[in-house]
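Our collaborator T.R. sent over the components below with a one-line note: 'Predict the complex.' Nothing else. No constraints on interfaces, no templates requested, no preferences about which chain binds where. So this is a plain run: every listed entity goes in together, and whatever single assembly comes back becomes the starting point for the next discussion.
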Amino acid sequence: MSFDEKLSARVAEVEQIVSSYLPKEEGYQKTVLEAMNYSVLAGGKRLRPMMMQEAYRLHGGDGKVIEPFMAAIEMIHTYSLVHDDLPAMDNDQYRRGKLTTHAAYGEAMAILAGDGLLNYAFETACKAFEIAPGVHTAIGKALTVLSRKAGIYGMIGGQVADVEAEKKGLRIDEDKLMFIHAHKTAALIEASLMCGAILAGASGEDVRDMETVGYNIGLAFQIQDDILDVTGNEAELGKPIGSDEKNDKLTYVKAHGLTEAAAQVEKLSAEAIALLQKNTLQDDFLIELTRALVHRTK
Amino acid sequence: MSFDEKLSARVAEVEQIVSSYLPKEEGYQKTVLEAMNYSVLAGGKRLRPMMMQEAYRLHGGDGKVIEPFMAAIEMIHTYSLVHDDLPAMDNDQYRRGKLTTHAAYGEAMAILAGDGLLNYAFETACKAFEIAPGVHTAIGKALTVLSRKAGIYGMIGGQVADVEAEKKGLRIDEDKLMFIHAHKTAALIEASLMCGAILAGASGEDVRDMETVGYNIGLAFQIQDDILDVTGNEAELGKPIGSDEKNDKLTYVKAHGLTEAAAQVEKLSAEAIALLQKNTLQDDFLIELTRALVHRTK
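Returned assembly:
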């Protein structure tokens, strides 16, 4: 089976799990439930729950306790897109060719659907306490990591710094650029891999390794994004290139040049793969997935 | 000491605890941290964390594990106000005589501050796992209740039904009215009392009693609000009366008349107080607080 075939099968498997945790569209609050489900089911590669499940398996996990956490991380990722798309933020009408949530349901309902998804992510993750009564301490640790990486010291923190940098039109320095990438992009990938390991009962050292892997993948992914904005094929990417140059935006490529940026992507991904191979169990799919994400051309 | 003096002392005590869990205003995400703290410190009676702490004491709790949950419920209450005040929702510029969060920090930052508070509420509650390593199961149960009562089957659910009823200008029936009151108003009071009991190690029956008490207080509080909109003293209330009549809004008073509404407030509060007195421990302050909330004239 080719990697693309394996990936498609894994996407379908993950979507089935995530969907099973979505709320039924009934009751007086039905509209928000429809808006939440519309947002989650609007597509996406399901990378975060997929990586979480791979990290769980890599550390010997084979139970159901991971499933509510997989749904939770996808709900958190989705709420962040719903709120990012709002008129007061990026004001986007379309995402992946579909109407954004506020374009489809109105602004008030999009705010509430985002709130609903964020809150329901934690409500859903709490279902793990019933699924696996024997591992309440691990579930508590996973909730702690999930909430921290999603919040003001994680994804929201990066989003705030990014919004401010764009609104004020300020030249940001490289330190702030790295802060934005590490928090806005990498934090949820770190959370995915760390929660997978924690729920499988991994050691503190193994969990820290997963954090490093997530950081490296997130950063490499972002730098590759910047590289493609210079060297990519517009037809293949499905979007115009050169937008960073046009917007005079500081990127890793601008600060260090294309050669150095490509070398950095290589270095970050090689480190991540080495850490993944350190584990006595093997997970070839996770390694292939890492290579595919980092070296993508679209 | 009069009840008002006791209440002031308790507000100060609760505020000290809640404040100690607020984030330090530093780092690249500083603006959102300022907006979050501004919102929480803008005032309020701190009823939810206060009732949570009373319920904890009523069931024999005397540790620190309750404190992060007290901060969490106040953060959740606050985020709901921040998002309710947004231009796409109620579009309010002032609350308690102060600029609302979006009026002070802009709309994008108010959305992110609300998200930040909701997420940080769960992050803060998770600190209980470190404070009290011996009671992870109770903490898991409390997190489950907190997330459910705050979410689509609790406060957010009520808010959605309320927003839709107002936007569509529909005549709502009494069943929907009770749904809105029970979810928008009562759910967080139920969560406060239930989490207090759970974290003190109360029995399932005692926790269900606390849910009933919270429901009764929330509903009585709301009906009293509607009564005051007809019979209140504008100077004492600090706001115009008669707004429900003017807006042709269905209220309990409109459906049943003033006499029946007052009798219902009496019945709900008497039931709540009877349940509170059932406990072998006594908490006179909580009973006095219940009476004061339900029979208030402003």
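Summary for T.R.: Chain B has one domain: 3-294.
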